[in-house]
Write a structure and sequence with these properties.
heterodimer; A: about 425 residues; alpha+beta; seven-stranded mixed β-sheet; six-stranded mixed β-sheet; 26 strands; about 20% helix; globular; B: about 300 residues; mainly alpha; 15 helices
């Protein structure tokens, strides 16, 4: 009898304990993740789903709002503007999608891109997308600043396998975003899915991307990078051909003092791209305080062998004193020592990242010289957060449970 | 009464006839060296995850896959040493040492074949990786050929193995030809990087905006050159394959040209990306080495025919 009472007591207590344990990190609870995944907007009928905001070149005044419909439809538009007291000021602006088309290899699903320009910097814009009369919820994002104010960005890569873990990281990002007005965008380092030509895999990724939207409707604009698993036409159809067809490299002036150069390690690294990189670094370095580059294949890897771009890009990074290079592909956490001329050098470039947005993690080869202390390595699902300040740039790695796995301070050169 | 044949001369004739079909040990040792160098390349490449590692990562997880790679790497180091010793000592076919030799060659064949197939499987939808089973053909044909030639050195078998190697070389040239035709980015970089090595890299030497403008023009012209050269290279590769596979023909010039081209393209990994990429050359040593082996074999057959 006593055992029976004890068992009943434990049965009642278990959910209470689990609610308490996961109250701040509910995405660690598998059931919560499953419930959230079931609540994603379905890709069916003529209504919009898989909404996303894309940033490429001038995010203080421009953004692309994109979404999916299960049918071609006839009228696809976005209503956007500044809202106060639940209403758009002046009724808001309406813009028809400039680019629509069928996703390659899909079963009738269509993409729609509305390229918005003329936005005010550092301003929260609300928007809702509408396809053939069916509307999305009202969401919002904040444009990039045109002044030297402090702000934050999230970085991460490799969400290609581990669908549940990917959902967990997305929920973590939503949580970080919800509690932080200064967090304005998310730069994905590539390898979104396993096969870039598989619409079903992309479709799952796109639907799950909705998990990065906060309860208040805040959307983190995405700055995309192409990874080695993202080959084929779908990448350009999903992200509106960032940087131009066949290139996918560009630079984003996130503020007058912060620039992010997105490179494409999946095309020729020498030739045109190398020359463009040299010209862009030459142009940007005197203007900005924080100059970053992001690309997929690491040139100072923690697991694999160095990417072929190393020969073409690293001398330029060093010549123009890049502040931070963000890499993916290895499925670990890493931060190198500052490197210049193949040696540890306090004036050198620090390389971070390697991808943990859901992909199974590897064990880093921490015996490599450039990963020794004060560098670091780890192995866990994570996202990186960078704070761009006037005096310093703070870098940290946040794990699924919200704990900090690494942090580092950079000072202006 | 006709004179009876001199028994000594008859024996010499038989020896010469035998030599005509049995491959010389020197040529076989050359093939062994090629396999050995190739696997030193495989071992060096295992500093990063193998295709099998990536394939098993989801199901087995790390550290299992890392330990597995490390074990394979250590095995290859020991096996290469053993291959070299067996090549020098040349134990008899039925000895334990030779059985170990055969096992190593069998495992080497299996490893190179698995890597080629898995490299394709783990990169679904990637057209360049889809050519890997063909492009790597010579890598698994070489150890298999060495195994067969050492175990069964009979006349008919040598011919079969010769065709195995011809098909291996053909697969590699077709795989690389397709990648060239589709302008594989790393092939474009091989040409640009090699040009930069010999002609100088204008991007790195630029100091002013004007220099950079000039560098942009030069870089664009080098990229354009690479992109226009690759389809021509592809056509060359396909023609070479067709000539190599002509039935009843052994065109030595074609084998020799394929050897030169195979070595040039394998070496371009170092000229484009730096001398620390020696393992990329080692891994591809058979691209030029096996055509050279065929050339040497055909040459020896010809000289034996003349002398007999």
């Amino acid at each position: 009898m006593k055992i029976k009472i004890l068992a009943q007591f434990l049965l009642i207590l278990t959910p209470l304990v689990s609610v308490k344990a996961f109250s701040e990190t509910p995405w660690l609870d598998q059931k919560y993740v499953e419930t959230r995944m079931k609540s994603l907007a379905p890709v069916k009928g003529g209504g919009p789903s898989q909404w996303r905001v894309i940033w490429t070149k001038e995010p203080s005044t421009n953004a692309t709002i994109s979404w999916t419909t299960a049918k071609k439809g006839s009228e696809h538009k976005v209503r956007y503007g500044i809202r106060s007291e639940g209403k758009y000021t002046g009724g808001g602006m309406i813009l028809e999608a400039q680019r629509s088309g069928a996703y390659s290899g899909a079963k009738g699903e269509y993409y729609h891109h509305a390229r918005i320009s003329g936005l005010k910097p550092s301003t929260t814009y609300h928007f809702e997308v509408e396809s053939d009369g069916k509307k999305s919820p009202v969401m919002h994002f904040r444009t990039a600043p045109s002044d030297d104010r402090e702000f934050r960005l999230l970085f991460g890569g490799d969400s290609r396998t581990g669908i549940e873990a990917r959902a967990q990281v997305n929920l973590l990002m939503a949580d970080l975003s919800a509690n932080d007005d200064q967090l304005i965008a998310f730069a994905h380092g590539g390898d979104y899915i396993v096969s870039g030509r598989s619409w079903s895999q992309w479709s799952t990724w796109l639907s799950q991307h909705e998990l990065t939207v906060t309860n208040s409707g805040k959307v983190l604009p995405i700055i995309p990078t192409r990874g080695n698993h993202d080959g084929g036409p779908l990448y350009d159809e999903i992200f509106d051909t960032p940087g131009g067809s066949g290139k996918n490299y560009f630079h984003t002036m996130i503020s007058p003092k912060v620039a992010l150069i997105t490179l494409n390690s999946e095309i020729s690294a020498g030739g045109d791209q190398q020359a463009w990189l040299a010209k862009t670094l030459f142009d940007l370095r005197p203007k900005v305080r924080w100059l970053l580059a992001e690309y997929h294949r690491p040139v100072w890897p923690a697991v694999k062998t160095p990417g072929k771009a190393k020969k073409f890009w690293v001398p330029l990074f060093e010549k123009f004193n890049l502040d931070l290079a963000i890499e993916s592909d290895g499925h670990v956490i890493k931060r190198t020592v500052p490197i210049r001329n193949e040696k540890k050098d306090p004036t050198g470039i620090v390389y971070v990242g390697e991808g943990g947005l859901g992909v199974p993690q590897r064990i880093p080869k921490s015996d490599r010289w450039y990963l020794q202390s004060p560098g670091m390595t780890g192995s866990d699902h994570h996202v990186m957060r960078v704070v761009f300040g006037k005096e310093k740039m703070d870098y940290e790695v946040i794990l699924l449970d919200g704990k900090q796995a690494d942090r580092y301070e950079f000072f202006p050169r | 009464m006709p004179p009876s044949p001199n028994p000594l001369k008859l024996e010499e004739c038989f020896i010469k006839l035998h030599d005509l079909f049995v491959m010389s040990n020197r040529i076989l040792f050359f093939l062994r060296l090629l396999v050995l160098i190739q696997f030193l390349g495989y071992a060096a490449k295992l500093d990063g995850p193998s295709a099998l590692n990536s394939f098993l990562l989801v199901s087995m997880g790390d550290p299992f896959v890392s330990i597995f790679d490390r074990a394979v790497q250590v095995f290859i180091w020991f096996a290469c040493t053993a291959l070299l010793i067996f090549g020098i000592v040349n134990p008899s076919v039925h000895s334990m040492a030779r059985r170990i030799d055969f096992s190593i060659l069998g495992l080497f064949t299996l490893w190179s074949f698995s890597v080629a197939i898995l490299s394709w499987i783990i990169n679904p939808g990637n057209p360049f990786h889809a050519t890997d089973p063909a492009g790597h053909a010579v890598r698994f044909a070489a150890p298999l050929a060495l195994l067969l030639l050492t175990a069964f050195p009979e006349k008919g078998n040598i011919r079969r193995v010769e065709w195995l190697l011809r098909w291996g070389v053909a697969g590699t040239f077709v795989g690389h030809g397709l990648c060239a035709l589709w302008l594989k980015p790393s092939f474009v970089d091989l040409i640009i990087g090699t040009m930069n090595l010999f002609l100088g890299d204008p991007v790195f030497t630029a100091v002013s905006f004007q220099d950079l403008e000039e560098a942009l023009t030069i870089a664009a012209s080098r990229q354009a050159f690479a992109e226009s050269a690759l389809p021509i290279i592809a056509i060359q590769d396909f023609i070479l394959v067709a000539l190599l596979l002509l039935p009843g023909k052994r065109i030595k010039t074609i084998a020799l040209w394929m050897a030169v081209w195979g070595f040039v393209t394998a070496t371009s990994r170092m000229t484009a990306y730096g001398w620390d990429h020696w393992h990329d050359l080692a891994l591809r040593i058979c691209n030029g080495g096996v055509p050279l082996f065929l050339w040497a074999h055909w040459n020896s057959l010809e000289s034996k025919k003349i002398s007999s």
